[in-house]
């Protein structure tokens, strides 16, 4: 009883600090058997934080077995939360993500017929370009040459290559822009 009376006169922080210094290592070792080091340290720290906030701290019989029980309860709650989270993911979120992936896959898959038709349409549009525009696009866009290389190859300035390429791409975009929105 004298020990409890002395505890009721001491400041709360002093009581918790003494318990921390005396039992931290044993509580950490106990928690470490169940969880990783970070989670074990969190559980032990949470135990002492809760003690500090306990409204009747001075009245409690604070044995190590009481502290073990607090750590154990915290770890059980943590485990239960993680199980519920995994269940929610499995039941709700994973099917939604799978459905979205399926929709994305269906939207991005085009038949070979569609691709061939689009390539034929592009080829027809490409042949309708002026020869200079077609050459500029072929060299810069298709073959990946620099503007300077394309200009040297065609015997014109870089600005001219840029203008031809720009005009040709605009002409190619126009039919596709109308087709996609219509």
Total DSSP E strands: 0
Q: List the helices and strands in order.
A: HHHHHHHH
Strand content: under 5%
Anisotropy-based shape: elongated
Q: How many helices does DSSP assign? A: 8
Broad structural category: mainly alpha
Question: What's the alpha carbon Rg, rounded to whole Å?
Answer: 37 Å
Main sheet: strands, sense, barrel: none
What is the number of domains? 2
Mean pLDDT: 80
Secondary-structure blueprint:
Elements: H1 2-9, H2 12-32, H3 37-53, H4 64-108, H5 112-127, H6 131-142, H7 147-154, H8 158-181
Helix pairs in contact: 2-3, 2-4, 3-4, 6-7, 6-8, 7-8
Explained architecture:
The chain has helices at residues 2-9, 12-32, 37-53, 64-108, 112-127, 131-142, 147-154, 158-181. With 182 residues, it is mainly α. It folds into 2 domains: 2-104, no CATH class; 112-181, Arc Repressor Mutant, subunit A. Helix 2 packs antiparallel against helix 3 (37-53), helix 3 (37-53) crosses helix 4 (64-108) and helix 6 (131-142) packs across helix 8.
In a nutshell, what does this entry contain?
This protein is an all-alpha fold.
């Amino acid at each position: 009883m004298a020990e409890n009376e002395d505890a009721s006169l001491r400041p709360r922080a002093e009581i918790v600090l003494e318990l921390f210094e005396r039992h931290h290592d044993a509580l950490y070792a106990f928690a470490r058997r169940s969880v990783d080091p970070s989670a074990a340290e969190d559980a032990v720290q949470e135990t002492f934080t809760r003690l500090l906030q306990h409204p009747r701290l001075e009245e409690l019989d604070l044995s190590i077995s009481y502290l073990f029980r607090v750590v154990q309860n915290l770890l059980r709650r943590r485990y239960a939360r993680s199980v519920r989270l995994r269940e929610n993911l499995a039941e709700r979120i994973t099917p939604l993500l799978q459905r979205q992936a399926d929709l994305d896959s269906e939207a991005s898959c085009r038949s070979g017929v569609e691709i061939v038709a689009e390539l034929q349409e592009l080829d027809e549009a490409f042949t309708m370009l002026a020869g200079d525009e077609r050459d500029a696009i072929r060299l810069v866009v298709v073959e990946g040459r620099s503007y300077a290389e394309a200009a040297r190859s065609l015997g014109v300035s870089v600005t001219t290559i840029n203008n031809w390429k720009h005009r040709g791409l605009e002409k190619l975009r126009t039919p596709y822009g109308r087709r996609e929105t219509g």
